[in-house]
Amino acid sequence: MTAAAQGRLYPHSDRVIPKHAVRTAIAKHSVIVRGHKTSVSLEPPFWEALQVIAEERQMTRYALIALRDEASGRSKNLSSDLRVFVLDHYLHESERRD
Fold first, then answer.
1. Domain for residue 83, yes or no?
2. CB 72 within 8 A of CB 81
């Protein structure tokens, strides 16, 4: 059975994503980065993927977001950077498994 048929969002993950989390509507999430309150606008699958990646790295989702903010610098859009980060993570994971 394929990952999609099993209801998994990520083919190499054992984590099952609830159907309500696979909506495509963008949601704003409040975060504190470098002591400043800000928000990121992400689709639920990207928000959930950040949680999965953070757990793999034994950190909180918010700590991971703060690290990405430091790495990307203030000139970039944090929400866009987080999407690219998630995609890059899973592309490289797929390459490692091949």
1. yes
2. yes
**Element spanning 54, H or E:** helix 44-56
Q: Looking at residues 55-61, what average pLDDT do you find?
A: 96
Q: Which CATH number belongs to the domain containing residue 23 in this structure?
A: 1.10.3990.20
Q: Taking the model in full, what pTM does it have?
A: 0.71
Distance CA 90, CA 80 (A): 16
Number of domains in the chain: 1
Query: Which domain covers residue 42, as residue numbers?
Result: 19-97
pLDDT digits (tens, 9 = 90+) for 34-44: 888 989 999 99
Average per-residue pLDDT for the chain:
81
- Domain assignment present for residue 45? The answer is yes
Please give the Cα distance from 69 to 71 (Å, whole number).
Answer: 5
